[in-house]
Specification:
This protein has about 800 residues and is of the alpha+beta class. Among the domains are: about 75-205 and about 205-240, no CATH class; about 465-650, no CATH class. About 50% of the residues lie in helices and about 15% in strands. It is built from 25 helices and 22 strands. Strands 1, 2, 3, 4, 5, 6, 7, 8, 9, 10 and 11 form an eleven-stranded mixed β-sheet that branches. Strand 3 and strand 4 form a beta hairpin. Helix 15 crosses helix 24 (about 760-785). The radius of gyration is 34 Å and the shape is elongated. Residues about 395-405 have low confidence and may be disordered.
Length: about 800
Amino acid sequence: MHDLRYALRQLAKAPAFTALALLTLALGIGACTAIFSVVNSVLLRPLAYPESDRLVVIREMDLPEFPEFSVAPGQYFSWLEQAKNFETLAAIRGGSYNLTGFGEPQRLTAKRITANYLTALRVHPALGRDFTPDEDAPGKSAVAILTHGFWQRQFGGRPDVLNQTLPLDGRPFTIVGIMPRDFQADSKTDLLTPAAYTPEEHQDHGAHYIGVIGRLKPGVTVEQARSEMNVIADRLAKQFPDTNKGWGVKLAPMLEYAVADVRPVLLSLLGAVGFLLLIACANVANLLLARATARAKEISIRAALGASRTRIVRQLLTESVLLAVLGAALGLLVAQWGTSALLAFAPDTLPRAREIGLDARALGFTCALALVTGIGFGLVPAFQAARINLNETLKDAGRGSSEGRHRQRVRGALVVAEVAIALVLLVGAGLLIRSFARLQNVNPGFQPRDAWTVSLELPEKKYGTGAQQAAFAQQAAEALAAIPGVQSVGASHVVPFTGNDYVLSFTIAGRPPVDPADEPNANYYAITPDYFKAMGIPLLRGRLFNAHDSAGAPRVAIINESLAKKFFPNENPLGQRINITNGPEAFREIVGVVGDVKHYGLDTDTPLQTYEPFAQQPLNFLTFVVRTSGPIPGLPAAIRTAIYSVDKDQPIASVRPLTQLIAESVARQRFAMFLFAVFSGVALLLAAIGIYGVMAYSVTQRTGEIGIRMALGAQQADVLRLIFVQGGRLVALGLGAGLVGALLLTRFISSMLFGVSARDPFTFVAIAALLAAIAGLACFIPARRATKVDPLTALRAE
């Protein structure tokens, strides 16, 4: 307690030193705690299900084309019969419903689950009940469980909604339950309904559109379950060769599957803030070394009065640990603010985002961090301060002693480390910035500017036939085209960058027959005639669809350039016939070739693509693309009005600009780049402060020497050169070590880069030059001050 009280008095007597040290530590510890809280919540904390370590996700794969794919319902029911290592297997698929009769029509997002799905998760509705097995059957599935968010938003949290009906797609659904607040569904999910697979779906092994989870039996490992599923996959491939040949099973723990995409980003960010904390510790250690020099006489007097070296080290370590604890307390405030800022800036696809926050583990991490950093940055200065020469110090002649020179070497080594670590962070940030710039410059294959998407789904009860669906598409397109400023309107059942796709196999007339399992696949689009014009997709050969390509006209198709090059490399694809396995078997004549379009993201390969007239293959879900001549005030409201003019009860799922879809597709890369840039910027600032501090202290220590040199005829340029050589040596050593470290460590972020090598020479040279320039500025200010030394004043002080 005596040491603690004395440490508090010492810190209070040096407010500038204390404030700078606390600010530096608060930044380092706060940033570390904020990123750790995200890593802890997303990667480390178990899922909020009982015995969640026994939950697995099962997917299918057909390497190399589909390393991961959704499951065919026939596969699920076969697994359900044959797998013995699971307590239960459950299935889930996406869905949507149109809600009418509650004000403006709404499009609700649903998860259609098997009756055992919540049982597999061991989750129960907070109110009401789960689905019964009888309700998970066609014709008996008009029941729904509401998510907590939708219940609050639509019904104000009223418990009397149980057993009430909800009109979905014109059909009354009975509300039987309300899910708990913390149920880990997609944040956009409004309700759960039974999957109710038909007898035909039970036998369908070719259409892949469901997800499967399983709960392992006690004592069964993931490897045992994976081996069993591989055996079943081989058995099914022999039993159903047309659909299952070449398909395997991918099984992973549910937590691992949920966070697989973000794990490299979060671990890289945790490493980055760890480096930032090291720089902060080096800065504070340098401050303590300088302070120890100023307190050399005090420490010598203590030693002369009988204080042992251990006693002196203990006192100084108490001060450094106290400083770290106070810095950690401020760091918690920084972490709280930083975590909120991270969540505000994080992409919507960040898993488990609702669970992120400071918890007991994060607080324990901060406490441990404070203790370790306090000892870490305080140990060297404490031992340095305890290495005293009583005679020299008490005679005020210790400036040029060996202890002083040794201390200077330690301070120089800390600066070298700061520069090296800062260079590693800056190179990482530079690579991510260059990668993001390359990504932004990728041509998506269409013109996103001044184009909006309007997504909706037609209820089958009202639009059950293809003729009705095609008529709605035409009338809605005409109503949208009538909006002032709209240039063209097209529609497709799926559009790029929405996360939705429709993949179908195809065959080409006149080619040797192949095994059905080996047929090539392509993304399929059913489009209206003006879709290419509205999207800005160029026609390369042939013609586009027109009004004559109606339901009764000869079937036609358009393919993209990649498909044309791959399957018609030395011949004209126009006039060739292609069979897309959608609807009745019929060959379509290829009438055009259009440019390639990125469908899944700017950083993905362009898939093979086939297009067919919407009138010849209508579907009940479609997205309109509205291209305008420029910005139109109130366009979303005008779009809704146009749709309601065709059908006042037709909900609209979303109205979004195409540019927003592209921005959302690169949100994760932007998130990583931004945080790396922020951390490296702070690291650069701290490193510059550290260099400045060492050089300023050196100038102060060498004032007498500089005065003598100037008295003997040294010019200002000579003094500048003297200081710059000293600082330049430290910076050069730091840059060399940093370049080696960057070459070794940047490979860990190679999976986050696009179009840039992890050893990109331009980035390395540019960042090294930037850091050298900043370091030069940090050296120049003290050097400039050294040239102003008055020789008489300096010698008189000596």
